[in-house]
Amino acid sequence: MPVRKKRRPHRLVFGQPLIEEPEIREVVDCLRSGWLGAGPRVHRFEKAFRRYKRRGDAIALNSCTSALHLSLLAAGIKPGDEVITTAMTFCATVNAIIHAGAVPVIADVDPATMNIDPSSVAAKITRKTRAIIPVHFAGRMCDMDALCRIAARRRLKVIEDCAHALEAEYRGRRSGTFGDFGCFSFYATKNVSTGDGGMILARRRTDADRVRRLASHGLDKDAWARFGGKGFAHYRVVEAGYKCNMTDVQAAIGIHQLARVEDNWRRRRSVWDRYQEAFSDLPVVRPSQVEPKTRHSYHLYTLLIDKDKAGIGRDECARRLLSLGIGVGVHYLSIPEHPYYHANFGWRPQEYPNAMRIGHQTLSLTISPWLSDPEILRIIRAVRRTLLGR
Ligand SMILES: Cc1ncc(COP(=O)(O)O)c(C=O)c1O
User: Fold this and answer.
1) How far is the CA of 269 from the centre of ligand 1 (A)?
2) Residue 184 has what pLDDT?
3) pLDDT for res 25
4) Tell me: the pLDDT tens digits for 39-79?
5) Which pick of 79, 180, 285, 312 has the fewest CB atoms within 10 Å?
6) Which atom of ligand 1 is found nearest the CA of 196?
7) Beta carbon of 198 within 6 Å of any ligand 1 atom
8) Is the CB of 89 under 6 A from ligand 1?
9) CB distance 13 to 188 below 8 Å
10) Ligand 1 atom closest to Cα of 189?
11) pLDDT at 112 over 70
């Protein structure tokens, strides 16, 4: 008799995006159209994004990293200026400040919200400070009242890093509309994904025009205006720009992803709620309640695992879950723990104790709308088994 092999359960990829037929068809149509670069689909995506946000001017780019970089340049940040951001973020936030020629300054986070602590920001301001980049971590809005008050008092620019916070709101106002610029990511694991991609929401028309120019070599006309629908036109280089535009192939995905943004948000919220309930008796710290009058975008679901309390450390927990086919993430080791920043800015992790502790204990579980109900149950069981040994 043939030996039947026991089938291993498939691996659940962390943050797998939910790609559906409309975007697949749109990509195929785009490929067949012969126009792959920035063109009519990018314009459609920008228009839909602006409508979703209800304010500002939207410029589609190749990444949120570019969005942060170009926002800093358009904000007039000059070499030697200081820009304050959080010690608990992805390195792109800090690298964009460095690439703009400015000096990054980091502030510690509030231990409950994991967001930049306004009192720590206030303590870091010097005569050279020109801007603040709050990061709405995991999809939870920062304390924008306090941060905008500090910025107004000290005449600082505000650039919101909304990479995690597409659907988030604070007192009825949408993320990315508080600052001079809001920067969004459509990276593979983000709530709306185009594989890679980004968007800037600029409050002022003049800033939006500058960003558009910077994103396209400093030309006074984009490719669609030069060769597209209306025929041939000369361009002029008016400044030494960069190459950061989105393509129509990416926008073809984004248009349909954005059309389902609220459905997917509801699905992630329900996964989040199930995790919150299922893990209530575990010896770990779950995400804190969503603050009143705010809307969380439910990008990351993070548990804090303290080895002294759980009897198992974060890294061991991650290894065991991976061995059970459950994809997990770490968001993030705190910024000062990375050797480059330590060597170049002298930052020491102990000086940012809240961010450091979170960085050592945090573990992200996937809440992708792609997950089926049995898969959610499988994750819950695996986490419980890993932490309780049963
Ligand atoms: C907080 C934060 N900022 C910026 C970025 C950079 O986004 P992108 O990959 O679109 O450049 C990321 C990406 O993961 C992020 O998590």
Assistant:
1) 21
2) 98
3) 98
4) 999 999 999 999 999 999 999 999 999 999 999 999 999 99
5) 79
6) 10
7) yes
8) yes
9) no
10) 14
11) yes
With a pLDDT cut of 90, the percent of the chain lying above it is: 93
Asked whether 104 lines ligand 1 (CB < 6 A), one says: no
The reply to whether 261-388 shares the fold of 21-259 is no
Pick the CATH number of 21-259 from 3.40.50.11540, 2.170.150.70, 3.30.360.10, 3.40.640.10: 3.40.640.10
| C-alpha closest to that of 303 among 320, 322, 286 | 286
Q: What's the chain's length in residues? A: 390
Of 334, 325, 341, nearest to 379 (Cα)? 325
**179 burial via Cβ count (<10 Å: 0-12, 13-18, 19+):** buried
DSSP per-residue string spanning 198-265 = EEEEESSHHHHHHHHHHHBTTBSS-HHHHHSTT------B-S---B-B--HHHHHHHHHHHHTHHHHH
User: What confidence tens digit (pLDDT) does each residue in 82-99 have?
Assistant: 999 999 999 999 999 999
Question: Tokens at residue 27, please?
Answer: 């990509």
| pLDDT, tens only, 173-188 | 999 999 999 999 999 9
Whether 178 contacts 185, CB under 8 Å: no
**Among 64, 242, 334, residue to substitute to test ligand 1 (most atoms within 8 Å of Cβ):** 64
The three-state secondary structure class of 85 is strand
The domain ranges of the chain are: 21-259, 261-388
334 lines ligand 1 (CB under 6 A): no
Task: Determine the atom of ligand 1 nearest the C-alpha atom of 65.
Answer: 11
Is 135 touching ligand 1 by the criterion CB < 6 Å? yes
Q: What per-residue confidence (pLDDT) applies to 226?
A: 67
Distance 342 CA to ligand 1 centre (A): 21
Q: Which class is 261-388 in CATH?
A: alpha beta
